[in-house]
Amino acid sequence: MTHPTPPKTQVLGVPTPLGQQRQRPAFLRRFLAQPATLLSLAWLLIVVLCAVFASALAPYDPLENQFTPDALLQGPSAEHWLGTDDNGRDVLSRMIFGARIALLVGLGSVLIAILIGVPIGLLLGYRGGWWDRIGTRFVDILDALPGLLVAVAVIAILGRGLPALMLAIGLIFAMNFARMTRAITLTERGKMYIDAAKVSGLREVSILFQQILPNLIGPLVIQGAVLTGSAIIIESMLSFLGIGLQSAVPSWGGLLGLAAAKLAVQPFLAIPPGIAIVLTVLSFNMIGDGINDALAGEKRKLVRPVKRVAGARTADSATISDVVSSPVLEVRDLEVALNTPEGTRSLVRDVNLTVRRGEIVGLIGESGSGKSTLARAILGLMQPGIGVARGAILLDGEDIAGLGEKDLRGIRGARMAAIFQDPMASLSPVHSVGQQLCETLRTHAKLTKPEARARAAELLTRVGVANAAQRLDDYPHQFSGGMAQRVAIAIAIASNPELIIADEATSALDVTTQAQVLDLLLELRDEMGLSILFITHGLGVAAEACDRVVVMYQGEVVETAGVWELFDRPQHEYTARLLAANPALHMSERATAQAMLVRDGNVSGGPRADDGAGDAVPLLRVRDLALAYRTPTLLGGASKPVVEGVSFDIAPGETLGLVGESGSGKSTTGRAILRLLPVAGGTIEFQGTDITSFGAHTPLSYRKHVQAVFQDPSMSLNPQQPVAAALTAALARHGIGDRAEREHLAEVAFAQVGLTTDHLARRPAELSGGQQQRVAIARALVLRPQLVVCDEAVSALDLLTQRQIIDLLAQLQEETGISYLFIAHDLGLVRNICDRIAVMRLGKLVELAGTERLFNAPEHPYTKRLLGATPADHPEGREERRRIRTDYALAHASGQIPTP
Asked: Which end of the chain is more exposed for a tag (fewer CB within 10 A), N or C?
């Protein structure tokens, strides 16, 4: 279905969105809400006025000498408010004109430093490698030179004067800006929006100055404000030493130097320039801090805590029998609210749920439904300004909603524990896993160091970590994602808690690792009698592991039911929509037709690994692809193969799925096709041309015809630019249309993916995850490519949004005949959209077949394992699936089944 295209004038005159209208006043409000910042601004305003209107404000000519004895080194008087200097010149007039010199030196030297240091830092940080190693050494050498020595050398070569002084101070600061810019660029260059810019064909200079530089504005302004004050100090020091500006030039530093020489004759002479320098430098520093605080957001002290309405029933009013028979966790009429300057807003309303002993309760819903907010309220881990406004949270009958941090510290870990989504973020990177486990054990179990270490090894062994005693000294980064999550589970169960809250504990894992973690939690539930509140947006996870399911929508619980009842007879419309969006329930129309043919025995179900995409001439042909990562060493570097011997074709209008667990090499293969990684061997032919022969520079024609949609839309869009800029920049690079035409094409692309003209001027943070991914798809389609590489394009989205994006991609393929390489780790997901599926394992292609043939008759053991680990669409038969997975794991561990 196509969308009507609004007139071009509507695009050019689109109003600023409400979100953006609020953003700038919010920054100004935070900036101007700081009293110290306001005082600093007031002082600098005075200095600026003096500098601009010095000729009108100064009562005397600052260069007019009066050598009469009664005019030399006089104190304050009615004629000369701040006295006179050794030449009889009016000090007030020289102070006023000195403000001009101070600002010129401060701002000019910082500007010179930015113009020199920022490009150096951008180039070194972006290119890396030898550029960075050699360039950084030169920066270190220049930065190690004493600043005073640099200033003296420059002034000695160029002579005393304002330009020479500004250049000298600018050179002192330039390496400071270069270091800061390099550090930030090193971080930014690895983000997806830089890869997206490369795929769009943007030049390196455009990526540096139009993509990366806008993300440096905040730090540059803060650093510039601080160094402007430092420049004024350096100018004063140089003038004080007599090597700065000429003595006739009215400057605060010159006055201070003169005051030091004449201190015994006229001590007051040092006070005016001293106060001016201190206040100006302090003001610039305070403004730098104020900008930093305003960019960081609201201060905690400005956020009012949420007041809880009393009246909830607790264990004190319950009988002993009630407490004994009560659930482990009971949430009653809970409301969680957020205090904002505009008022109080409810995040979670009227929530009621229970978790019985030994029960696993699933809490499902799309992103923003309030699941994680509810979990953090139960754990007492809410951010400032968010709190329980009403209701009760009963843990074994005790209301913990009103407890302070000290009381909650004794509950968390001992009676209630949590497992979070990203184990690498929840584990400390600077402490070994043994230290983190032992700290938990010694805190709650009061064990000695040897006892805690022995118990930690037992826990790691129990959660499936091999060689546990030796791995206690390893750090989190030395574990894979699945193993790191096992460590997090070991920490959670260390003190034998009654309740575990698993907040998206498997959503960041591939399907095989996800299945292993789910089986581990089920084993621990059966063994220890744990109660688990499992928060997830995956219906397959709920079907495999949960006893009951609670559905949340827009902060409210809309349905609670047993897992079989929920899947068979959903009562609420939203639950039915969630179930309908489950990818395991769907097949594309072509896949459905293919499945019917396979069932009727009319076709073989698609090609096997040695077959091509059919009789059509391939759009993309990959043959014996090999990729390697180079690890730097003292002798230059060692190559580690990551992809070997991968071969496949993609026909025009075809969708090929590339699946496998994390680390299988599928995303690496996609990045090689996008020419984001160098190829170690083999060929990649696009329309008959081997792209590995292009060398370091990729032709624009290839960038136009091969585009990408990356995993995390919030990271693949530049956070500092309106989303329309991602489209118009690509169009401009390829020389398509003038400015008005490019804006019109961006509007057409937005309409094609279901967005309106109101979205054009918004920034990524003002859009939902689904809208951000639609923008990424629009960026990929605006150049009308023939192939789009979708690298985990929907794995970060909730079910409903995921379903919408998959339908959108299929619809656009029907309309344009585009081809897709669809990279994912979920076979149930790729079944919806792919004609054929290629399975990767440890950098090699182990199976390639038509979608339904792969599902109905997989040949390779690893493919069978992937299919067995894929979450089902219904809890029916889950015990048998769990038994099969357990038998497979035992057989594999004993060597009966070789590693695929």
From this structure: N
pLDDT for position 808: 87
**Res 270: pLDDT:** 86
Q: How far apart are CA 823 and CA 840, in angstroms?
A: 11
For residues 265 and 84, give the distance between their C-alpha atoms in angstroms, rounded to a whole number: 12
| Sign of the CA dihedral with 430 first, then 435, 436, and 440 last | negative
Residue 488 has pLDDT above 80, yes or no: yes
Q: Which residues lie below 8 Å from residue 866, measured CB to CB, with a gap of 6+?
A: 511, 512, 659, 660, 661, 827, 839
Report how far residue 699's alpha carbon sits from residue 705's, in angstroms, rounded to the nearest whole number: 10
- Rounded distance, CA 728 to CA 747, Å? 10
User: What would the pLDDT profile of 593-630 be if each residue is shown by its tens digit?
Assistant: 444 444 444 444 444 444 455 556 899 999 999 998 76
Q: pLDDT over 90 for what percent of the chain?
A: 23
Distance CA 199, CA 705 (A): 10
Orientation angle between helical segments 739-752 and 769-781, nearest 10 degrees: 130
Alpha helices in 529-648 (DSSP H): 539-545, 563-568, 573-580, 589-600
Contact in structure between 419 and 489 (CB atoms under 8 Å):
yes
pLDDT score of 888: 67
Give the whole-angstrom CA distance, residue 302 versus residue 385.
9
Q: Residue 331, Cβ neighbours under 10 Å: how many?
A: 23
The mean pLDDT of 547-563, rounded to a whole number, is 92
d(CA 401, CA 395): 10
Looking at every residue in the chain, the average pLDDT score rounds to: 82
Tokens of 399: 């209301």
How far apart are the C-alpha atoms of 690 and 275, rounded to whole Å?
70
Q: How many helices (H) and strands (E) does the chain have?
A: 37, 20
3-state secondary structure of 217: helix
Backbone conformation region of residue 380, classed left if phi is above 0, alpha if psi is from -120 to 50, else beta: left
299-307's contacts with Cβ under 8 Å and 24+ in sequence apart are: 299/30, 300/384, 302/33, 303/339, 303/384, 303/385, 304/339, 304/385, 305/339, 305/384, 305/385, 305/387, 306/336, 306/337, 306/338, 306/339, 306/344, 306/385, 306/386, 306/387, 306/388, 306/389, 307/387, 307/389
Beta-carbon count within 10 A of 87 CB: 16
Strand segments, DSSP code E, in 508-580 are 531-536, 548-553, 556-562
Alpha carbons 484 and 465: distance in angstroms, whole number: 9
pLDDT band at residue 182, thresholds of 50, 70 and 90? very high
- DSSP letters, 608-632, are -TT--S-SSPPSEEEEEEEEEEEEP
C-alpha distances (whole Å) from 79 to each of 55, 93, 267, 705 are 18, 12, 19, 78
Chain centroid to Cα 235, Å, comes to 41
Q: Please state, for a pLDDT cut of 70, what percent of the chain lies above it.
A: 87
CB 750 within 8 A of CB 229: no
Span 140-174, pLDDT tens digits: 888 787 877 788 888 888 888 888 888 988 898 99
Distance of CA 620 to CAs 286, 486, 617, 823, Å?
Answer: 58, 40, 9, 15
Q: H-helix or E-strand containing 183?
A: helix 162-188
Q: How far apart are CA 36 and CA 709, in angstroms?
A: 46
Q: What is d(CA 785, CA 65) in angstroms, rounded to the nearest whole number?
A: 76
